[in-house]
Amino acid sequence: MEEYDDLSAGPTEDGTLDLSHNTWSVFPDELSQFSTTLLHLDMKNNRLTQIPGCISCLALLQSLDFSLNQIDYIDKGIGKCIRLRSLNVSRNRLSSLPSQLSKYIMLEKIIADQNCFTSLPETLIDLIAISIIDVRDNQLSSLPLGLCRVPTLKSILCEGNNLTVAPENMRNDTKMLFHCLEMQLKFKEGIAAKSNQRDELQANANELREKLNNTTNCIRELEKDIAALVWERPDEYIRRKERFVELVKKLSDKIVFYWRLAKNIVLKWWNDRKTHPETEY
Predict the structure, then answer these.
(1) In b/e form, how buried is each residue of 236-273, taking b as 16+ CB within 10 angstroms?
(2) What confidence score (pLDDT) does residue 281 get?
(3) Taking the C-alpha atoms of 101, 102, 108 and 110 in order, what is their torsion angle to the nearest 10 degrees?
(4) Contacts by residues 177-185 (CB-CB < 8 Å, ≥ 24 positions apart)
(5) How far apart are the C-alpha atoms of 122 and 140, rounded to whole Å?
(6) Cα gap 165→154, rounded to integer Å
(7) pTM above 0.85?
(8) Distance spanning both ends of the chain, measured CA to CA
(9) 165 contacts 180 by C-beta, under 8 angstroms
(10) Exposure pattern of 43-55 as b/e (b: 16+ CB <10 Å)?
(11) C-alpha distance from residue 33 to each of 20, 190, 253 (Å)
């Protein structure tokens, strides 16, 4: 078959292998034999549905062109191609880009227009060499706000999306788009700072409340100890003893009084009986 003839020929002297405009429906495993010579792989306009993990063996790749296919999945193994400078997945069926793209310290260009993206990975802000990002005609409602602070990024093409981060008339102007992203990023950072401050104040309040509870408990224990110690003070002991002696004396006096009263009554009765023996009581 013609496509296998192109494959068997191998890369050209500059490391380019052109397998475009064929009928490839599966990524060819045979590419692994070119792991030390293949630098530029062109597989646009085929019938591929995914980029499998075996692409990880092509670690020297500098450019990949998978545009005009039917790709809806990219394996995380693509993160091993850390020398990649250009990635073209335009006109496919992708709903997301792999977060492993952040490992591409040399990546300068991402062409991903006309897919089905609803969001982009936040890790794009870690690309230290990125210059162009093309995500036109997708289903994006937002962009990673931190892209506005990537110093090497010169252009974001994002027309044809439902972005809420910038008015439609500003989306085709990278400077204005960056300004919108920067304003929203500052607002988000301000909210995050206030939220952190609130959380910190809440934590401090909880800590103070716990300390207050502990202090209250300590005060209660001290009050108990003080009450116990009061009984052991000499003056308190003497005062209570004097009061006790006073009460005992009063009680003794009453007992003596009633005893004498009873004695007098009995004696009177006895004397009356002796004086008038026949008198009946």
Answers:
(1) eeeeeeeeeeeeeeeeeeeeeeeeeeeeeeeeeeeeee
(2) 43
(3) 40
(4) 177/148, 178/147, 178/148, 179/148, 181/143, 181/145, 181/147, 181/148, 182/148, 182/149, 184/145, 185/145, 185/146, 185/148, 185/149
(5) 13
(6) 18
(7) no
(8) 152
(9) yes
(10) bbbbebbbbbeeb
(11) 19, 53, 123
- Asked if 72 and 97 count as a contact pair (C-beta separation under 8 A), the reply is no
**What is the Cα–Cα distance from 171 to 179, expressed in whole angstroms?**
11
Cβ-proximal residues to 97 (8 Å cutoff; 6+ apart), any chain: 74, 89, 110, 112, 117, 120, 121, 124
The Cα 173–Cα 156 span in angstroms is 9
Tokens of 245: 């002696």
Placement of tokens 């009063």 in the chain: 250
pLDDT in tens, the chain (281 residues): 555 656 777 899 999 999 999 999 999 989 999 999 999 999 999 999 999 999 999 999 999 999 999 999 999 999 899 999 999 999 999 999 988 888 888 999 999 999 999 999 999 999 999 999 999 999 999 999 999 999 999 999 999 998 888 777 777 788 888 888 888 888 777 766 666 666 776 777 677 677 767 777 777 777 677 666 665 666 666 677 677 767 777 777 777 787 777 777 777 777 776 666 654 44
